[in-house]
Amino acid sequence: MFLITKRKRITPPADVVADCPRRIILPVNDGRLFAVNADNGKLCETFANKGILNLQTNMPVTTPGMYEPTSTADHHR
């Protein structure tokens, strides 16, 4: 359990901001999560593994088609 006593704004490193000042986080049904630059549609190279995060890494069951994200795409800046 975490207790938040004071909210802080986290400022990302300059290279992350330069790579993707506005990003769309997009889950897909094969267990991957993409970070896409909202301005040009390219993957955000500074996110995870060159813009793609495999959410099934170290999961006990990785059968194709058995992973279904429940969140929609989200826009961050």
How would you describe this protein?
- Residues 18-73 form the Pyrrolo-quinoline quinone repeat domain.
- Its EC number is 1.1.5.2.
- One of its GO terms (molecular function) is quinoprotein glucose dehydrogenase activity.
- InterPro entries: PQQ_rpt_dom, Quinoprotein_ADH-like_sf.
- The chain has 77 residues and is mainly beta.
- The chain has a domain at 16-58.
- 8% of the residues lie in helices and 22% in strands.
- The chain has one helix at residues 14-19, and strands spanning 23-27, 32-37, 52-54, 74-76.
- A 4-stranded antiparallel β-sheet has the order 3-2-1-4, with no helix packed on it.
- The longest helix has 6 residues, at 14-19.
- The mean pLDDT is 79.
User: How many whole angstroms does the radius of gyration measure?
Assistant: 15 Å
State the end-to-end CA separation.
28 Å
Mean pLDDT: 79
* Main sheet overview: 4 strands, antiparallel
